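Continuing the series of single-chain predictions for the mutant panel. This is the parent chain; the variants come on the following pages.
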Amino acid sequence: MAVSLKKGQKIDLRKSSGETLRNVMIGLGWDPVEPPKKGGLLGLFAAKPPEIDCDASVLLCKNGKLENTADVVYYNNLRHASGAVQHMGDNLTGGGDGDDEQVKVDLERVPADYDRIVFVVSIYQAVQRNQHFGMIRNAFIRIVDSDNHTEMCRFDLTENYDNMTAMVFGELYRKDGGWKFNAIGQGTTDASLAQIVKRYQQ
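Parent structure:
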């Protein structure tokens, strides 16, 4: 049974047998908030939820910092040069059940000098469209053991993120020869992926 994490909680990425996980799938999901329904005849023509284009990105860091923009995996760079991280593609609306975007990580192929893999989600053209994470519900990040398709852990983001235009969902990091996951859930007002990248370059 998957472990349900709380904000700030950390967990070892190990199988029930104690072995370190090798291949994981990171699933990220979200839904637009439903608009309030109107009574009477107007209720038949209730507005649809706004289409919010959330983009998941992955930052591969050395010594906790992003040293090269080539280490950012996102919709325009779906595969890291090492082959260890692969983004499975962009979902433009957040519609449908389950994961909206997925990232595959081969932990054994991550070069030794990378110690953090950060998963962030930003809203495309958030400022221009006047959109923010307060307009998002059911946001989550989960980790699946790709070898047997078992969900290992899940973190549901339940705080109020009004006016936040980007979100650090969580991170994988090296510890004592293995990998751990940290449930972060930190909202930011970064208006673009470029601004998030600068945050991790400092």
